[in-house]
Amino acid sequence: MKRVVVRTCKWIGLPGATIVISCAALTWLIGCATNKPSGEVAAGTTGKSGAQLWAENCVRCHNIRSPGSLSPAQWEVAMMHMRVRANLTPEEHKKILEFLKSGS
Amino acid sequence: MSRTIPIILNQTIACAFVALICLSFSSAAMAQDTAPPQPSSDYVSRAEYDKLKAEHEAMKQELDALKATVQQMTAGAVPAPVEAPTAKKGVSEEKQVVTVPPEAATEELRQEVETLKTQVKETFPGTTKFLLGGYGTAGFTARSGEDPFFDAAFNAIFLFKMTDRLFFEGELEFEFEDNETTTNLEIAQASYLLNDYMTIGVGRFLNPTNFFVERQHMNWVNKLPDKPLAVYDGLLPESELGGQLRGVIPIGPTKLEYAAFVANAPGLITESDDFSEIGMLDFDNDANFGGHVAVGGHVGFIPIPQLEIGYGIQRSKVGPRDRAVQNILQSADFNFVADSALLKGLINARAQWVWSHVGDFVYDPDGSQGFGPLEFNNNRNGGYAQLSYRPTHIDDDYLKNVEGVFRYDRFNQLHTPVGFDEQRWTIGLNYWVTPSAVLKLAYEFDDKNGGARDQDAFLMQAAVGF
């Protein structure tokens, strides 16, 4: 195990190893800090509406665009594009698409 | 002993009494649970009948309209649909609505309407769904020591959804460069959704290692008129030519994103009229000079919806086949967006740092270029941190569209043929006309060491996404 860790660290270099360890530590800390049963701050989709997921996911990169800016058929294409580009889960994709189509 | 028996008896009686009460309650509860439902009656009230009749009439009208549409689209060339007699049958049974269950007739009619809808859709020219999007930009740059200039660019994005699993995206960029209009193929990728958590893509795609390039480089998404040092057009490729596997794995309330790819490796610049380029990487190595393959990937973690952190790495050999050296590119990214009620607005913090390593290589071994033989490794790094705020919660219609931006970016390459480090502080002011149309103003304070001249700049840009 130690050899694997050492070889991995050598392979990705010191900056990479530092970042991986930092990310793991930060992940663990945030995981502990946000472990709320209500799930209000969770990234998971369970219990969240399409509108909520639309606001949470889209705004991470750009301003959210109005559902009325595209037709339902166009949203189908745009959302498949975003599912691949922004790594949306199937549930997020489905709920957001339903919301956008209902509002367009 | 004689006192013990009454105590036991008393306890037994008490227990029995409690058990009897519990049994009574549970029996009552069970009785409620298992109570038979109210007997249904076959009787249909007048109101119910009228309601069903109205629904029936509405569906009949929809059916007639669909029939007319089908006939118009086929222009009489196609024989009457097979369902036509069935439809008549449905109509002929209209009078039996009262005698047969009306729900059955309505359901039958609904099924016929669905069949006709499907037929209408099948008469359309194709099933592929297409969307033309993109973005356009117009800008002005006044940089000290250089002539000021206007520029414009247009990126057209073509999206095709062939099936629920197969997707194609292409992007063409048109821009002015050296008094000419140039065209670049930015993206040409076919993607196939293997399953819910895995998508395979082949072609030319944006480099997944570079978070800024993949998610934020578009001019209507990028919050300043220019792009950060080192991260864009610097140490990492913008696009890759090869194949990638990517997806997302929900882990409880969090998400883990991943991407892994194989692609043409960058080329190593060993000859150039500009000495500062020696030892740099050529990312436009579409012909794959050297014949090397790059392997890379990116992992991103979203612990809460507002935060995303990631790390990417790309590794390959570069240079001539017989003297190839190791190349490692790395990137760490951070993105935080929060809609703060306390600060009455949207806060966005972005940061990314990249590293590039090229192993020891002997340049100009025979001295024909006039500076060799010269052996060195090329290690450079740089990145940016950016903070923006937009008071989206305030009541003023104009002020809520104003956004302030601050960015610090840096490029460390003093000990390379470039010979200097550079750092910049940029302040910007944006006005969002629509969610995807923005006017940007910015001033950039530049600081270079190693004897290079500082070049402060005033920048303007209008960007529209569509």
Quick overview:
The complex is a heterodimer of chains A (104) and B (466). With 104 residues, chain A is mainly α.
Describe the fold and architecture:
The complex is a heterodimer of chains A (104) and B (466). Chain A has two domains: 1-34, no CATH class; 50-103. In chain A, 30% of the residues are buried. In chain A, helix 2 (50-58) packs across helix 4 (90-103). Residues 33-42 of chain A have low confidence and may be disordered. In chain A, 66% of the residues lie in helices and 0% in strands. Chain A is mostly helical. Chain A has four helices and no strands. Chain A is elongated, with a radius of gyration of 19 Å. Chain B has two domains: 65-122, no CATH class; 129-465, Porin. In chain B, a hairpin with a 4-residue loop joins strand 12 (325-340) and strand 13. Helices cover 21% and strands 45% of the residues of chain B. Chain B is an alpha+beta fold and 466 residues long. Chain B has five helices and 18 strands. The termini of chain B are far apart. Chain B has helices at 4-33, 46-74, 83-92, 102-122, 211-216; strands spanning 129-143, 149-161, 166-177, 180-195, 198-206, 239-251, 254-264, 267-268, 281-282, 293-302, 307-318, 325-340, 345-363, 374-390, 402-412, 422-434, 437-448, 457-465. At the A-B interface, helix 1 and helix 3 of A face strand 1, strand 2, helix 5, strand 6 and strand 7 of B.
